[in-house]
Specification:
Length: 349
């Protein structure tokens, strides 16, 4: 397993992380994802650790906290071998204090997560969504207190826009608070919006991407095909409306190219889709999920090799979409492009 620095921090994380959203199985959305119990979860954690996957991601909203509980049971007795990542801010109840990122909510949410995970600290504590009602200064003060208390090691965010991340980073620097080092984002071959603003921001500010749903909300498994009904066992039957939208014809064009590369390389469609992500700028770790051992072992085959440049170019070409304003002039007009070199390339002079 390859290990990478998480943004501009000193923390090394595995190129692949394991997402525990399938643990617990409560509610219409997460029940459709999976209902892995503690015994099965421990087996999956065993396989992950054997392969070098040491970071496990969850959230308080996953199965009403059951995901954290099952993950805590699965890592019991080997806490020092793993990195635990969890998230809060989304509503977990109907009360006025059950949502958002206020000081009181963050403190209560962190303490509750620690209890459910059965640990005394969280390695990466992330805000699951931006809370427009709470001043960023209050949010950062609360996170600083959690870090100083030893309950949290590193802080990050998820599903923020560029201005929301940048405002928070500026405030953290001004106040001497810990900066966000991770942004948990949706990014896939059929969802490349992350590249328009958040990727350049990550490069400039040292914020590493922790990628969720690298297979396009289950669409890049190799089982969703043009002219065929969804497979009977696909979770898209229950969850499609919850995830990022994808135009069918765009999806099938990407899958056609993936099929060709799979035939040429002997790799599976999911392995190729994940490997492409691992070669993209700012990506610190890609979160893989699995409902069983077979799925997990297949996804593990995404590391230990690299797509060659010709394959990367083909995937880039077929998956590229026209960027919205104000981004498209910098992609399509030479005068604009001269001022913005390709990502990862230093500006001359």
């Amino acid at each position: 397993m390859e290990y990478r620095r998480l943004g501009a921090s000193g923390l090394d994380v595995p190129a692949l992380s394991f997402g525990a959203g399938t643990f617990g199985g409560r509610g219409p959305l997460f029940g459709a994802w999976g209902d892995t119990g503690a015994r099965e979860a421990r087996l999956l954690v065993d396989i992950c650790l054997e392969a070098g996957i040491t970071m496990f991601d969850t959230a308080d909203v996953y199965s009403d906290g059951a995901s954290e509980e099952v993950l805590g049971e699965a890592v019991k007795g080997r806490r020092e071998e793993v990195l635990l990542s969890t998230k809060t801010s989304l509503p977990t109840g109907d009360g006025p204090g059950d949502a958002g990122s206020s000081r009181s909510r963050l403190i209560r949410a962190c303490d509750a997560a620690l209890r459910r995970l059965g640990t005394d600290h969280i390695d990466l504590f992330q805000l699951h969504a931006f809370d427009a009602r709470t001043p960023v200064e209050e949010v950062l003060d609360a996170l600083d207190g959690l870090v100083r208390a030893g309950k949290v090691r590193y802080v990050g965010v998820s599903n923020f826009s560029g201005w929301q991340v940048m405002k928070s980073l500026a405030a953290a620097e001004k106040r001497g608070h810990p900066r966000y080092v991770a942004h948990q984002v949706y990014y896939s071959l059929v969802g490349r919006d992350y590249e328009w603003e958040l990727m350049p921001l990550g490069l400039d500010q040292g914020v590493g991407a922790v990628v969720w749903s690298p297979l396009g909300w289950g669409r890049l498994t190799g089982k969703v095909r043009r002219g065929q009904p969804l497979p009977a066992g696909s979770r898209l039957h229950e969850t499609a409306d919850f995830g990022p939208p994808v135009e069918d014809e765009h999806l099938f064009r990407v899958v056609d190219v993936l099929d060709g590369i799979a035939e040429e390389t002997g790799r599976t469609v999911p392995q190729i889709a994940i490997n492409w992500l691992l070669q993209r700028p700012t990506v610190s770790s890609v979160i893989i999920g699995a409902r069983n051992e077979t799925q997990l072992r297949q996804n593990l085959g995404a590391v230990g090799w690299k797509l060659d440049p010709e394959h990367m170019d083909r995937l880039d070409a077929v998956s590229t979409r026209t960027a919205p304003y104000p981004y498209f002039p910098y992609r399509r007009q030479e005068a604009f492009a001269r001022l913005n070199p390709p990502l990862g390339v230093a500006s001359p002079g």
